[in-house]
């Protein structure tokens, strides 16, 4: 950690920081993402920016420190300097451009301001154990560890290790997630370890791995500026990935083409040269329609297809049925829009394809991704600057911690299959244990298995499945019935309410390690403040428990964990913390210590046995349930700019909550008129699994027959409405993006619903 005195003179630094903070309001107004979404100043309590500036200028500069780190919100991978007195975050600002290759001088509103959660009164600072009356009380670490070891071992002895399960954390570092996978297999004796990637991009991983070989983005962020055209679908980019959204909008403003297909006219669509509103749940139909048009009109890249792909004839045959008339009938996408988008893709030399969960969170998400992979491949848009596929990752480390590090039921680190005898033998030798060759349960399957009596215990780290799981009512029931549940988190969240033991962890600002961002870039995370109370880093807790359960872990720092991991993981074989720090990040695959990392995948060959892309024929697919007379609306879910996931990090922020303190439902004006609903009215959404009451936002950004609701608040928990039984057959991803619901004006007493000052939240068009 660098003392400010070591960086500049006192006067220069004082004037520079104070000037920076006092100008933050004006800068926020200038930033594209803040102009579009409402300025950062508008989200903060009056004078907060200037209070921060005063705090900084009033400090003795000798007591202030500044350290660069990587953001702990989304996976764009922004880097910035954090100003602190050692205990409290006082301010942030973008770091030097050479240390921030993804974001440059830009940050989003959450990355810039939202750190009140670190010092929130709700932070867990001591372990909690449940007493004989069923109430939580504080305990020492020794007592808590004793209870955990006793509970885990009792289940192992009664039912075997396979009755245990573990949910790892995409918020934690790479090093910690490597240990979570190791802990599950070596200490607990189970392959039932998984993470939130199962709920979001596992369809991406499965689909891209099958076609190209790697289940990750093929591009670097710089490719967005080199593309002639960008094709986006299922991505509310400006709200879920604001800094990346800014780059895309600027690129479009410079005259490059932007095509957006989405059920909602999200803000990024306002910058598009073509926006097409689609019927949710049928993406592979219109994607196949684009592929058919390109093939039928000889617009595909014959040389690329011939030399670098297999399976083209099978794909050509499979898309024959997706005629313009059929596509329009199923998806509401017109023949003209199919032709326009297809010719935009075909007529530009460099096209980049981006998506998020709107394409993946379906019971046929893997097929959606394979259809998109076919489209990119037949047009030759892979392996050269400005081309490729980019699934925008959601949580800060879901690429690295959620996938690369192997806390997965079927893979070791680096996507090495546990069913492969050589892989299993390598890890059994390294970890000194026997590993079951059968994959364990995926996350959503864990709760179904618990219902069947096949899982009895769970160790949940940094996740909140009580809210985030589909059919959340069922997930909560299973958590309550779990014979032994341990939760490790910053807060006593909704899942922790069911726990037998709660262990206090620390945030990314209180520990050191690495994150891997959405373009495979491994970057440093540095401790900038001291841990709160007696809270510990996840890796320290895991090591303490492993040693109490008969193992001999002896890591003294996270760089040693990274060293062990890279020796077992070929795609990370050349990545060390020292190199990451010195070189400002490294992109995998990076095979040895002399390898420079890989900026762009597939420049020469694909990661397949024959080096070619294996195109996959994809047929018709539809949601697991369709609207009917009883449930006539299609519900899709998502995020908003000023909140983050289940709110653990954003709900303690006063300014964020002043602006956005509730979920809502978007409904088309014609539908609202038909049901007698006005803007701001309370309405009831009901599916076959549950119901919620939220205020309505009447807006034309959503199509007729479709409603949209965010996912951020426990009070309304939209996942009460979603389905946990209809899963993608390959990735086991649930269908968050499509549920059949009915909508009606709320008929109860409005005073019994905790929504005061109901206002539209995301703005109207």
TrEMBL record:
<keyword id="KW-0004">4Fe-4S</keyword>
<dbReference type="InterPro" id="IPR006478">
    <property type="entry name" value="Formate_DH_asu"/>
</dbReference>
<dbReference type="InterPro" id="IPR027467">
    <property type="entry name" value="MopterinOxRdtase_cofactor_BS"/>
</dbReference>
<feature type="domain" description="4Fe-4S Mo/W bis-MGD-type">
    <location>
        <begin position="64"/>
        <end position="122"/>
    </location>
</feature>
<comment type="similarity">
    <text>Belongs to the prokaryotic molybdopterin-containing oxidoreductase family.</text>
</comment>
<dbReference type="GO" id="GO:0016020">
    <property type="term" value="C:membrane"/>
</dbReference>
<keyword id="KW-0560">Oxidoreductase</keyword>
<dbReference type="InterPro" id="IPR006656">
    <property type="entry name" value="Mopterin_OxRdtase"/>
</dbReference>
<dbReference type="InterPro" id="IPR006655">
    <property type="entry name" value="Mopterin_OxRdtase_prok_CS"/>
</dbReference>
<dbReference type="GO" id="GO:0008863">
    <property type="term" value="F:formate dehydrogenase (NAD+) activity"/>
</dbReference>
<dbReference type="InterPro" id="IPR041924">
    <property type="entry name" value="Formate_Dh-H_N"/>
</dbReference>
<keyword id="KW-0408">Iron</keyword>
<keyword id="KW-0411">Iron-sulfur</keyword>
<dbReference type="GO" id="GO:0051539">
    <property type="term" value="F:4 iron, 4 sulfur cluster binding"/>
</dbReference>
<dbReference type="GO" id="GO:0046872">
    <property type="term" value="F:metal ion binding"/>
</dbReference>
<dbReference type="Pfam" id="PF01568">
    <property type="entry name" value="Molydop_binding"/>
</dbReference>
<dbReference type="GO" id="GO:0015942">
    <property type="term" value="P:formate metabolic process"/>
</dbReference>
<dbReference type="GO" id="GO:0022904">
    <property type="term" value="P:respiratory electron transport chain"/>
</dbReference>
<keyword id="KW-0479">Metal-binding</keyword>
<dbReference type="Pfam" id="PF04879">
    <property type="entry name" value="Molybdop_Fe4S4"/>
</dbReference>
<dbReference type="GO" id="GO:0043546">
    <property type="term" value="F:molybdopterin cofactor binding"/>
</dbReference>
<dbReference type="InterPro" id="IPR006963">
    <property type="entry name" value="Mopterin_OxRdtase_4Fe-4S_dom"/>
</dbReference>
<dbReference type="InterPro" id="IPR006657">
    <property type="entry name" value="MoPterin_dinucl-bd_dom"/>
</dbReference>
<dbReference type="GO" id="GO:0003954">
    <property type="term" value="F:NADH dehydrogenase activity"/>
</dbReference>
<dbReference type="InterPro" id="IPR009010">
    <property type="entry name" value="Asp_de-COase-like_dom_sf"/>
</dbReference>
<protein>
    <recommendedName>
        <fullName>4Fe-4S Mo/W bis-MGD-type domain-containing protein</fullName>
    </recommendedName>
</protein>
<dbReference type="Pfam" id="PF00384">
    <property type="entry name" value="Molybdopterin"/>
</dbReference>
<dbReference type="InterPro" id="IPR050123">
    <property type="entry name" value="Prok_molybdopt-oxidoreductase"/>
</dbReference>
